[in-house]
């Protein structure tokens, strides 16, 4: 890969721009690929939270957990949970507990395979060590600027 600037020039580049550009490129690619199989990124998050849960989660738990992902918001997450229910991928009982359906599990497996392909695509030519260093550096930038970030 050819970089956009020499090392001497790159060291002076703003992290805000490059982290934004990386965010935009990665999220746009993920969302386009998920749209290609008939879902949205927030619907994927809901489906993954229900499919991967060790214990049954309630609608409220899933909504609270995901409402801060990429500034989604609680109203939006409630709507996305409703869509996953309407799609027949998950069910909600009278106490608000969510469960994955057989159709949902099949769709989750398809979407998870796509996510694995996208992961491999993003990580091409990037070692685990480089990736780990990148995440730690980004976390330090967040900490140093008084920001907060958390991902589950």
Automatic annotation (TrEMBL):
Gene3D superfamilies in the cross-refs: Winged helix-like DNA-binding domain superfamily/Winged helix DNA-binding domain
InterPro entries: WH-like_DNA-bd_sf (IPR036388), WH_DNA-bd_sf (IPR036390)
The protein's name: HTH marR-type domain-containing protein
């Amino acid at each position: 890969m050819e970089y956009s600037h020499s090392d001497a020039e790159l060291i002076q580049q703003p992290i805000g721009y490059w982290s934004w550009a990386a965010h935009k490129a990665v999220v746009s690619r993920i969302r386009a690929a998920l749209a290609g199989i008939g879902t949205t990124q927030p619907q994927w998050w809901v489906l993954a939270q229900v499919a991967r849960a060790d214990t049954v989660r309630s609608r409220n738990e899933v909504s609270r957990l995901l409402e801060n992902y990429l500034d989604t918001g609680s109203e939006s997450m409630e709507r996305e949970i409703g869509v996953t229910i309407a799609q027949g991928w998950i069910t909600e009982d009278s106490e608000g507990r969510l469960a994955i359906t057989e159709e949902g599990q099949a769709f989750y497996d398809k979407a998870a395979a796509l996510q694995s392909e996208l992961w491999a695509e993003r990580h091409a030519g990037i070692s685990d060590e480089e990736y780990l260093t990148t995440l730690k550096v980004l976390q330090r930038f967040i900490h140093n600027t008084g920001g907060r970030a958390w991902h589950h």
